[in-house]
Write a structure and sequence with these properties.
With 331 residues, the chain is mainly alpha-helical. It contains 13 helices and seven strands. Helix content is 59%, strand content 7%. The radius of gyration is 27 Å and the shape is globular.
Length: 331
């Protein structure tokens, strides 16, 4: 029989492989984690997992307010909802365990690095109970990661709604708007420098952790890690396609196609000029606003996009594809 012959023929190669494996070092040498540093991939995966989890929870929370009659409350109290969610997650994870949910999934925990260096502790194998961050340090961490971003979002929203930057340059509001923008640029620059340093040294993945001297170490020396390769493949594929679609800006072409179809289907006597058509809903604008690129939107259409947390204060113009970050009343 063929399968019997194949089995017999495979015995010698299998025996050879077994002997070769027996001469290799113990597998523990391959699974033991580095003693003086946490692998960068673990730290970045923990950060990415935490961000994705928060994004999922925010989307679910905001989805509740998509019901008719609740949308007004969503945009009116969006910052408060985000702050409440961030505070609850922080209290249930970092405040109680000195590790975020993403860190816990990667077997990582924060320690007081200043105290560790003072005692000569360089190993990151496991957390020494005496090096757990104090409540005061965690409180500062909460202020910088939860409270300060909330206050900045509130001020930026107020600045956008009242258009502080267009006021008298000597006014307090105009100066405050300029200071906030300058501080954002400085913080972004320092964050980039910190990231480059992290890639070189594998220490302090965020600027806040560096400022507070909070370093990630392993909770235990060994841990089992399971990777769903199908999920990873789908995730990479989705990221690639989403980046590609964002690059070619499909929405702009769809918008152009919609306007072209409207031009063909609308009687010539009913055609209206661009200044009397909202680029988002393609209807006569309600409380017309002009974007910084010169195109017209309804007040709700443009403000809802500018104030949406996912848009980060700007979005691509649906007419020309330019970055929209300001809106002015149409005169």
């Amino acid at each position: 029989m063929t399968w019997v012959e194949d089995t017999a023929a495979a015995q010698f190669p299998l025996a050879t492989v077994v002997k070769q494996q027996g001469t290799l070092p113990s597998s523990n040498l391959f699974t033991t984690l580095p003693v003086n540093r946490v692998l960068r991939v673990f730290q970045l995966c923990a950060l990415q997992t935490q961000e994705e989890l928060v994004d999922i929870l925010r989307s679910s929370l905001f989805g509740i307010f998509e019901l008719e009659g609740l949308q007004t409350y969503r945009y009116a109290y969006q910052d408060e909802l985000m702050f409440l969610l961030d505070a609850v997650l922080y209290y249930g994870s970092t405040w109680k365990r000195a590790q975020s949910i993403g860190d816990r999934m990667q077997n990582l925990v924060l320690r007081d690095e200043a105290k560790a260096l003072a005692t000569g502790m360089t190993s990151v194998v496991r957390l020494d109970p005496t090096l757990v961050p104090t409540r005061g340090r965690l409180l500062l961490h909460a202020l910088l990661t939860v409270c300060v971003p909330y206050m900045i979002r509130k001020v930026q929203r107020k600045s956008l709604e009242e258009d502080w930057e267009r006021e008298n340059p000597r006014s307090l509001k105009a100066k405050l708007a300029k200071v906030i923008r300058l501080l954002s640029i400085i913080w972004s620059t320092l964050s980039i420098i910190n990231t480059l340093h992290f890639l070189a040294t594998a220490q302090y993945r965020t600027l806040v952790e560096r400022l507070l001297s909070l370093r990630l170490v392993y909770g235990t020396q060994k841990t089992r890690r399971f990777s769903n390769l199908m999920y990873l493949n789908q995730h990479v594929t989705w990221k690639t396609w989403s980046s590609f679609l964002a690059l070619i800006n499909v929405g702009r072409y769809i918008s152009r196609l919609t306007r072209s179809l409207q031009a063909f289907t609308t009687p010539s006597g009913n055609l209206v000029s661009n200044d009397t058509v909202c680029c988002a809903c393609h209807d006569r604008p309600t409380i017309a606003q002009r974007s910084n690129c010169g195109h017209v939107y309804c007040y709700y259409c443009i403000k809802s996009r500018l104030l949406d947390a996912k848009m980060a204060g700007s979005f691509r113009c649906l007419h020309c594809g330019s970055t929209v970050h300001q809106a002015f009343p149409l005169k």
